[in-house]
Amino acid sequence: MIDRHLYFTCHAALGDTPVVLLAGARQTGKSTLAKQLAGSLQEAMPFLTLDDPATLGAAKRGPDAFLEDAGTRCLIDEVQRAPELFLPMKKRVDAERLPGRYLLTGSANVLTLPKIADSLAGRMEVQVLWPFSQGELDGRPEGFVDACFGAPEALSSEIVDWPEFLERVARGGYPEVVQRTQADRRRAWWEAYLKTLLERDVRDLANIEGLHELPRLLNILAARTGGLQNFAEVGRLAGISTSTLKRYVALLRALYLHLEIPGWHRNLEKRLIKAPKTYLNDSGLACHLRGVDAKALAEDRNRAGAVVENFVAMELVKQISWSKTRPTLHHFRDVTGNEVDFVMEAPDGRIVGIEVKCSSDLGSRDWRGLQTLAAVAGRDFVRGIILYTGQQRLASGKNLLALPLASLWKTPMSETKTN
After folding, report:
1. CB-side exposure of 124: number of CA atoms within 13 Å?
2. What domains sit in the chain, N to C, each tagged with a CATH number?
3. What's the predicted TM-score (pTM) here?
4. Which regions in the chain score pLDDT beneath 50?
C-alpha cells in the first residue's frame, strides 16, 4: 500500500470535527484511505457503501433509521448518492457533538448543493484526495510548497532525465493506471473509467440531456489545458450553447475532473487579466484524451508544454493540501502579455511566482513575467522560480531562481517552520 500524505491531515480532523468528508474523483483511493483512517480509531466504525444497491435503497427510504442502525460512529462511502442523509446527520451531530462521529467519502462535491452546505456548516471538514502525487509514488513527503516561502537552500536541485520525467507526466497518478505498465492496458482502463463516469455518476448528480456531448467536451478541455477560460470559444467548438456548456463544466468540476485556477490580482490593480485558467485533474487523463504518450511528448516539446504545465499544476494543488503554509493558487497575466503560470499567495499576503519551461536554455525573456509580478507584488514578493528541463540551479537577479523540474517533488518536507 502506498502511503497518502493527506492521512495525517484527515486523522487530525477526526480528532476535533464531528463530520469529515474525504472527497475526490472516483478511483483516487478514497475508500482505501478512509478504511485506513477508520482502523486507526479506538472505537470501531462500521463501513457502509452506497455503491451497494440494497444499502443505498435503505439510506434513501429511511435516512433516520439508517443512521440510527449505523450507531454512534460510522464510515459512509459515496455519500453523495443519498443526500437525504445529511439533515438527519446534522440532527444527530447537534444532539451529541462528538469528534469523528461520521467519516464520509464522496466522488462529487456535495457542497455544490446549497441545502447540504447549509446543514453541515461548522460541523464538517472537507479534504480532497487527488490521484497520487509524485512524492507519494516515490515514498517521500514533498515540501516544495513550504520551501518556496522559506530559505532558498531548502529547495532541491535534484534532477531526473527528460524521458523519465515524460513517463511520469504521461502516466499521471491514478492508482489503477500506475499499476499497469502496458500502454494498451492503461488506455483500456481510461476508456472504461470515463464510460462509467458518464453513464452512472453524471446521471446520479444531474438529470441532464445530451450526455453524448460530454466526451467531446472533455477532449476539447484537454486540448485547451492551461489556457484561459473562454466559454464562447469552447461552446462553438463543442457545438453547444454557452448556458449548457457552463452547466456541463460545473458538473465536471463537481466530479473533481476539471478545475480552475483563478487570475491573481489585488483590488488596486486594474490592468491584470482575471479570467481563470483551466486544467484536468491528472496529466495522465490529459494525455489519454489528447491521444499522446511519453514517446509522442518527447518528439515535440511544444506539444509537451501544456500537459507538463497540467502536471505541475496538480502537483502544487496536492502539496498545498498538506502544506504548513497553505497558500492559495493563482496565475498571473497582465494586458500587455506578461504572465506567470502559477502564483502562490500565503495567508499573510506573501507571494511566490512559478513559471514552467519545457526548455533547457533560458534567456532574458523567460524571466520577464516573474519580474513583472515582482514589481506588482512589491515587498510581498518572496521569490520567483522557473522550473525547467535543465540540470543546473541558476540565479538571475534578486529572488529569482531556476530549478530542475524534479525539484517539485524532490524537495523534502521539513519539520522547521517557514519564514
Report:
1. 22
2. 7-128 (3.40.50.300), 134-410 (no CATH)
3. 0.94
4. 416-419
